[in-house]
Amino acid sequence: MAGRLVLVASLVAALAAPAFAAEYTFDPNHTQAEFSVVHLGFSHVEGFIPVTSGTLTFGEEALPLSVSATLNAAALDTKSADRDNDLRGPDWFDTAKYPTMSFVSTRIEGKGPGDFTILGNLTMHGVTKPVTLAAKFEGKMVDARGRSHVAYTATTTIDRRDFGLNFGKTVPGGALVAGFDISIRLSVEAIAAGGHPT
Q: What is the mean pLDDT of residues 105-131?
């Protein structure tokens, strides 16, 4: 009887434990990068950059072992065609020359998936610099097709001058048209290898 109880307990624990495939691929239809920058010293401009591809690799837990992503800078969107054209131009992202951005993790730190840190290299505007993201596991589920999904969010703040985005025009009074600090928030949904986005 004791052996049977141990076996049942083991099966229950196995069913309750989150099982993760070795690799998940980003679903670009449900993944995006949001950014925010201070405008004229007191308001904020926000925009989006599509995340076109990416991967998360796991061991047996929800804490990733590695993360990589590619973003389409040429498709950035701030809901203003004139501003978007300026941002794509040579004073800013120069997307004719540098159409994409990329991130590759170098280390992931944390004891659990609730809150952890992703350290890695961000390449933007032809410049690669280390950045640190504060990340959080948002959940895991299996859809009606039997595909395993995971979701994460991550945030960081960068100084755009570190990446050669040095545009520093000011208005009377000295306020920058666009601040140097850029806040970034990533919302990622990924599907276990073999699944397909919808």
A: 92
